[in-house]
Task: inverse folding
């Protein structure tokens, strides 16, 4: 690249990332992005189409179906008509809603307290929380603790062991510390307490980061399966993810549909794909509504200053 001379001196060239993009570069980026989107959407398309296909169409295709033919909703009607899958979906929804609300309440209160420099012992509490990110008790002590508290075979075992994420607390704390101290001081002068300041000032100004953190917690609870397999022995209490593992990996049809699969009325592959779609729908629906908050919420909460 040539350098323009200013006052007899060669002006420094601009960095590469500040140069105007060329057509070839734009075309290459478009092709790469299109390929990435196709690599993501094509498997989802196959899963959805196969779940909507009849047994004859699946047998003719030899498995997964790419071109939709003989569309039928029998698999979804049977899965949502009662039985194991419907019960597991309700369990997952309940655990996700209750767990997310509880985790958000604890994380917001903890982050707000740690963001106030004058709060008692906040430095030692912060260091203790940071230590838990690098050192853990391990699986066996955790299981023994849950068992000693009498939480096995209860829904609390799906919430409490993973209720709080230190990373999320740190992101919230950094965001809260960026709120103007003048607003906090003026509220204190007007006689507002800490809880009132949190509810009336901090939370309304932090909707972006709260939406992002709530999505993180919700996706974590919705996708969790390990705690249920570890702490629950009653199959009727299993969430949707564990039922999906049972159907997809172990090739076991859900309770109530085994007879239809054996008689050929329902394709086992269609049932597996339908359960996968049911597990993906909530996250796919919720993500676009929170997407606009990701950049503001995460960057502002991650960078101090």
Result:
């Amino acid at each position: 690249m040539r350098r323009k001379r200013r006052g007899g001196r060669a002006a420094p060239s601009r960095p590469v990332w500040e140069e105007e993009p060329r057509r070839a570069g734009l075309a290459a980026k478009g092709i790469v992005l299109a390929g990435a989107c196709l690599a993501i959407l094509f498997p989802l398309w196959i899963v959805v189409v196969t779940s909507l296909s009849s047994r004859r169409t699946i047998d003719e295709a030899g498995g997964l179906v790419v071109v939709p033919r003989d569309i039928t909703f029998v698999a979804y009607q049977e899965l949502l008509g009662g039985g194991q899958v419907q019960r597991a979906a309700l369990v997952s929804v309940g655990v996700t809603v209750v767990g997310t609300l509880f985790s958000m309440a604890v994380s917001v209160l903890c982050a707000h307290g740690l963001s106030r420099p004058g709060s008692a012992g906040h430095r030692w509490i912060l260091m203790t929380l940071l230590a838990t990110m690098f050192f853990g008790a391990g699986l066996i002590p955790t299981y023994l603790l849950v068992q000693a508290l009498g939480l096995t075979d209860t829904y609390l075992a799906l919430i409490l062991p993973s209720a709080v994420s230190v990373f999320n607390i740190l992101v919230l704390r950094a965001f809260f510390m960026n709120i103007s101290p003048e607003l906090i001081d003026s509220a204190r002068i007007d006689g507002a307490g800490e809880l009132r300041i949190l509810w009336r000032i901090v939370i309304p100004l932090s909707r972006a980061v709260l939406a992002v953190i709530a999505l993180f917690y919700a996706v974590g609870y919705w996708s969790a399966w390990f705690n249920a397999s570890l702490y629950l022995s009653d199959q009727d209490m299993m969430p949707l993810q564990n039922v999906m593992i049972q159907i997809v990996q172990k090739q076991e049809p859900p309770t109530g549909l085994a007879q239809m699969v054996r008689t050929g009325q329902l394709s086992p592959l269609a049932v597996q794909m339908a359960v996968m779609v049911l597990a993906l729908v909530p996250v796919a629906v919720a993500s676009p509504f929170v997407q606009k908050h990701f950049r503001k919420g995460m960057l502002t909460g991650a960078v101090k200053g």
The beta strands are 5-6, 9-10. The first strand starts at residue 5 and ends at 6. The chain has 14 helices and two strands. Residues 268-302 form the longest helix (35 residues).
